[in-house]
Amino acid sequence: MAQASDRTIEAACAGQQTAGQQTAGQQTAQAAPARARAALLGEADFWRLWYVGLAVFIARWLETIAVGVFAYQQTQSPFIVAMLTMLRLLPMGLFGAFLGAFAERMQRRTALILVVVMMLATSVVLTVLAHAGMLAVWHLAVASFLNGLGWATDNPVRRVMLGEVVGIDRMGTAMSLDVGANNASRMVGPTVSGLLYAGVGVQGVFACGIVLYATALVAAAGLRYRNRTAHAAGTAVMEQIAEGLRLVRGERRLIGTLVVTVIYNLFGWPFTSMVPVIGRDNLHLGPEGIGILASMDGVGAFFGALLIAVFARPAHYKRLYVGGAASYCALLVVFAVAPSPLIAGAALLLTGLGGAGFSIMQATLVYMAAPAEMRSRVLGVLSVCIGLGPLGFLLLGTLANRFGAEPATATIGIAGLLALALTWRWWRWIGA
Known about the structure:
By secondary structure, this protein is an all-alpha fold. The protein has helices at 2-39, 44-75, 78-103, 108-131, 137-152, 154-166, 171-199, 202-221, 237-250, 252-267, 275-281, 287-311, 317-337, 341-369, 375-386, 389-403, 405-422, 424-427.
């Protein structure tokens, strides 16, 4: 009996020890994401890359609002406004796959520096032309296309660099912070653009862009990063692109992710080109009011990105991605029919929340599903899918010219929701 009691006590102690070990293991697992987030604070190259993105994002939004307001004042054509925004996306569709392949053949740090220099030079030229009173809409068209080339490199160059600097375990957190910077730019950029445009003129907007690109160049030049994967210099560019496409075709998770990307960029994102038009014609706002209205999308997206950075786990990624795209399309319909600036701003605020989920998970899901040696190529394919957006801008601009900006915007939002419903068979594999 005494021996039995001793064995019982020993078993109980062992059970308590095992339970304690399990509890400690659970606590360690729960603490891991927090440690991963904290470890980013010591990654100097991560913050340099993050700042390059922030500066370029802010400059992009400064230019987008100023270009839209200037072009509409000069032409009174919603179609031309939509086309100027479309030109920023066109290089992704035309050259995204090629840029992804080329990114594997050179040091990405060098590529990043060259891209920032090109955008800096573009802003210098536009500032000089505007100051001299010689700025024309066709100048803005050329500049939009050139800056679109820079935008097309972001996924296969800068964001691949981000992933390699932080590692795949911290990629979700890093992307949340990076998209948070993008969304902060959408919060600050349009408002600053509207105020500068009203107070100084369009040349003040482009001059501010010069300062932003110059600081981004300093950050890029200070990078210690060098490519970790082997260069593919011995492989033809077309062969590299074909390998990337074959990988996408055989991976259900990638197919589903790219299908949702195409839908968002055809039926969701193009509506941003109509914000200056609806703001002026329907809501009777000036440049300052249009800038503040456009920034509401960024405010919602910024706080959405912060929430995702703190609380999101891999199990949430699919719902954040698909749900974000669906809510974005639904809420742009609300924005289109809003009877007042207050309701329109609230709709854009909520649109930003949905857009944050989509934007953060887009590159994250593709990065996680692609082999390390092919990430630039696959992210180049992602850029191509994003680059299909010009078709959406063309459709929206045509509808807006014929029926007006309000019904055209509502129509493409509804079309986006229908497209998501009809493509469930593909995107249901995301995160599987």
